[in-house]
Structure formats: C-alpha cells, structure tokens
Amino acid sequence: ESSNLAGVRHILLVLSGKGGVGKSTISTELALSLRHSGKKVGILDVDLCGPSIPRMFRVQDNDVHQCDSGWVPVFVDQDKSISLMSIGFLLEKPDDAVVWRGPKKNALIKQFVADVAWGDLDFLIVDTPPGTSDEHISTVEALRPYKPLGAILVTTPQAVAVGDVRRELTFCKKTGLRVLGIVENMSGFVCPHCSECTNIFSKGGGEELAKHAGVPFLGCVPLDPQLSQSLEEGRDFIQEFPKSSAFPALAHIAQQILDSTSQRSS
Amino acid sequence: AEAAALRERLRAVRHTVLVLSGKGGVGKSTFSALLAHGLAADQAKQVALLDIDICGPSIPKMMGLEGEQVHQSGSGWSPVYVEENLGVMSVGFLLSSPDDAVIWRGPKKNGLIKQFIRDVDWGEIDYLIVDTPPGTSDEHLSIVQYLGAAHIDGAVIITTPQEVSLQDVRKEINFCRKVKLPIIGVVENMSGFICPKCKNESQIFPPTTGGAEKMCQKLNVSLLGKVPLDPQIGKSCDKGQSFLSEAPESPATLSYRNIIQRIQEYCDQHHFQEEKII
C-alpha cells in the first residue's frame, strides 16, 4: 500500500511534558546534525498553537503547495536535504491565533501525518507541543502503523520540569512508544566574560530521571547565547558554531540516534 | 441552571486575573505563584490560586503542597491552604502518584475546569488568580467561557525576550482581543542574566526583534515590567518556597514587587461594582 510515509526510514518524536524546555530547538539541531552526516531529514511540526519550526530555518514566510499526493513540504535550501511541514505555513497572518478545540486539532494532525508528500527520507522528526493531550494522542495513533523508532524526551534540570516529564514517560509507556532517551537542556550557563558556570535552572534532574526510569540519558546541553541567536535568525548552528559550548552535546545526541538506528533491523 | 451555578460560586470573587502566554516555559506558573504570595502578604486579603494546566500542573510543587489531597464537604471541594488567606486548587491534588499522567482529550479537560469553578468552595475572595497552560485551545476557551459569569479584570501575559516567544505571545494577544478579554499588561521574564562572579550581563534569550518593549509599543499594550534571570528563582520553586521571601534583595524580587503593585492598582481602578445579569 503506497502511502506518503512509505519512503520514510525512521520516525522519531520529540516530546516533553513541560513547555519551553527546548523541544523545537532539539528537533532543529538534530535535523541539522543528521543533515551534516549526509542524511535526508523531514520535520513535522504538530504544535498548532505555537509553531516554532519554520522560523528556526528562516522559512517562516514560505507558502505550501499541493501536488497529486498531497502537500509538498517546504525545503529549507537548494539541496533539499531538510524539508518541513507546519501549520505556520498555512496561516494567512503570522500573528493569527489558532484557537481550536481538540477535535479540529485532531483532524489537522491526521492530515499532516497522512497527506504530506515527504518522498524518501532517512528521518522524520516530529516536534510536538508540551503536554499529554489531543495532539499527542492523535499523533501517536496516526503514526502507529508506521512503527516509529521512538521518542526523545527533553527536560530542563529543575524539579518543576522533571515533574512534568515523568508524566510524559508514563504517556510513552501507556501508548507503547519506545523512549530513546532523555536530554537535559539548559544545563548550566558558562559566562562568556569570565567562564564561571552558573546553574541557572539547577542541574542534574534530567540525568537522575533517566536513571530512575531506566531509560538512556542522551546528555546535557548547556545554555548558549550563540545557539539562541542562531535559532532566532534561522541559521545553521551546527555548521557555523562548531566551537561553541552546546555543539559537542548536540553532536553527541545525533550520534546516539544514528547508533540506535543501526541496532534496529530495517 | 449550569450558568446559574457558576455565577453563584463566582459572586464572592472581587477580582480575577488570568496569567497567560502563547509560549511554554516562560514563567507563567512561577509568576502566578509569586503574584499569589505577593497579594497574600496583606493578611486582610483572601487570595485564591487556580491551576488549570491539566497536563502539567506545576503549582502544587511551587507552593510546597506536593502530596496534598483535596477534601470534599457538603459545600464542595476544599482548596488546599498554604496560608490562612491563600488557597490553591490544581489537578495535581487529584493525582495519587507523581508519575500519574492525565492523558485526556479536550472535552474531558473542559469538564474538570468547569468543576473547578463550580464545585470548589473558595468562600469570599479578593483575588482569584488563574494559572493556564501554554497555547490558545480548550483550556483557554473554557476558562473565559466559565468565568464569563463573573467579571475578569484582565489577563497578564508572560513572555521571554526572544522572537521565538514573542511570535507565540502575539497570537495570545490576538486571542484576548478575539474573546474580549482585557489585557492588564505583559511581563518580560528571563530578561538578562548578571554573572554572580564578574557582574557582566549576558542576554541568554536575546531580544533580536526588540523584545517585549517593541512588541508592546506596536500592539498598544502595557509593559508591566522586566524580570532578570536569578538562579534562586528556580531553586525556590523547586523547594516550594516563595522566592520573594527567600531573596528579598534580589533585583528580580524588586521587579516582581513593582509588577504586582501595578496589577493591584489596575484591579483597584477597575473595581467590579455589580453582578452582570444575563
């Protein structure tokens, strides 16, 4: 049966119970890292209320077009190695709020999962909003027939964030979604003036949670103003800032994802 | 009859403030908790904090009330009290384990929010603060609908300086205008970080498009204030203590106190006189 996801080798979800921990950031940097390893990557942004992905690739003003098999994803550059789909592309005005209740959100998510003509991809990364509600239930249900590789859970170090991510782990367990690992983001800030490290959002909560829950810990990513700036301007952080403090951690996360696919028989 | 039940409960509420953001993780719950503590410092005021983030209820932890349960009586559900004049309600109190996930679709979430308004016996309160999840969806539509029986003084919208947040916050501002919810103003959180060692400032979340200040100018809303990053804030939240009490000298505390005062002044000016008859 031919479907728009038939050419996608690995599907992975980026989740968190908590908002603002860096799901879209990690999705973006993972895509860029995988691209630099020679992979073709798609990102499906199912955050309907707060779609952040288009701007992170500087394509927020692009339109989407339809073809025979459905929507054509937006390519971020000439070599077409990264493609995106987001409700951000469907809004007439960027400040328009999508004020929809669950059923309408669910309908669009089903369409996004089934009707985007991705073509051949090595990885489809699905970026999600925070929580364990309509978007998450619908996305997992729609993706189930395509056997996703699993989910990366993003947290920040402090207990208030970890508290929500524990619930997301329960969600994964209940829906049968394999947890590839936990990323602890915003883990420490190194002052660019004097190199003093301050744990602005505490430290260690993500690693402890991974240990407690028996899932892999993928690493700590520090706060890095160069990373924030890159995301604001839609630049390729992986290419432009290999010496910056967040680079090693982000590269390591991508490597672990690549390793997990070689363990899995296709 | 349903609308009448909601109206009845809300009759004893003098001021209602919603804390919103289009964006997650900008500090809504942190701000709601500190606003509640700040207002309750006046022992003569009765303050209520309602947490309608059903999937990610942070308020119990931040208020030091983890593990507390809700009790029922003839007059309804009892809020959990932090102080004699500060009561809290959250789905967090209905869960038996920290691993329990609330995996509900919209309609079920709406049902619980309605119950929170209709069945919680707050008594007479001066300030009802409602902490919300990020977004513009079921929870937001429902709370505006259910509180419509009373009078909502307005919304405080939280953001961080960078465009990735502002682009979601503009949507939230449009949501407020669509549902005719007055906007008290915007708070720019995580606005700069002063290194404790060398005292130099870093913009960890850079205001590449002018920050909240420029957005507020363009959209004609008040900027209530800017709050800098302070590692003690996260620590206090995790411990369930009030940051305002734990770090009274911090520049962040000063900012919060100024903002809280402005909110109080706004509420006093827009004093709710009479119950609306529908």
From TrEMBL, chain A:
InterPro entries: Mrp-like_CS, Mrp/NBP35_ATP-bd, NUBP2/Cfd1_eukaryotes, P-loop_NTPase, YlxH/NBP35. GO terms for molecular function: 4 iron, 4 sulfur cluster binding; ATP binding; ATP-dependent FeS chaperone activity; metal ion binding. GO terms for cellular component: axoneme; centriole; cytosol; nucleus. GO terms for biological process: iron-sulfur cluster assembly. Keywords: 4Fe-4S, ATP-binding, Cytoplasm, Iron, Iron-sulfur, Metal-binding, Nucleotide-binding. It is found in: Cytoplasm, Cytoskeleton, Cilium axoneme; Cytoplasm, Cytoskeleton, Microtubule organizing center, Centrosome, Centriole. Gene3D superfamilies: P-loop containing nucleotide triphosphate hydrolases. Heterotetramer of 2 NUBP1 and 2 NUBP2 chains. Interacts with KIFC1. Interacts with NUBP1. HAMAP family: Mrp_NBP35, NUBP2. Component of the cytosolic iron-sulfur (Fe/S) protein assembly (CIA) machinery. Required for maturation of extramitochondrial Fe-S proteins. The NUBP1-NUBP2 heterotetramer forms a Fe-S scaffold complex, mediating the de novo assembly of an Fe-S cluster and its transfer to target apoproteins. Negatively regulates cilium formation and structure. This is NUBP2 factor. It comes from Nyctibius grandis.
TrEMBL record, chain B:
Keywords: 4Fe-4S, ATP-binding, Cytoplasm, Iron, Iron-sulfur, Metal-binding, Nucleotide-binding. Residues 14-170 form the AAA+ ATPase domain. GO terms for molecular function: 4 iron, 4 sulfur cluster binding; ATP binding; ATP-dependent FeS chaperone activity; metal ion binding. One of its GO terms (biological process) is iron-sulfur cluster assembly. SUPFAM superfamilies: P-loop containing nucleoside triphosphate hydrolases. Pfam families: ParA (PF10609). PROSITE patterns: MRP. It is found in: Cytoplasm; Nucleus. The keyword Glycoprotein does not apply. GO terms for cellular component: cytosol; nucleus. Gene3D superfamilies: P-loop containing nucleotide triphosphate hydrolases. Component of the cytosolic iron-sulfur (Fe/S) protein assembly (CIA) machinery. Required for maturation of extramitochondrial Fe-S proteins. The NUBP1-NUBP2 heterotetramer forms a Fe-S scaffold complex, mediating the de novo assembly of an Fe-S cluster and its transfer to target apoproteins. Implicated in the regulation of centrosome duplication. Negatively regulates cilium formation and structure. HAMAP family: Mrp_NBP35. This is NUBP1 factor. The lineage of its organism: Eukaryota, Metazoa, Chordata, Craniata, Vertebrata.
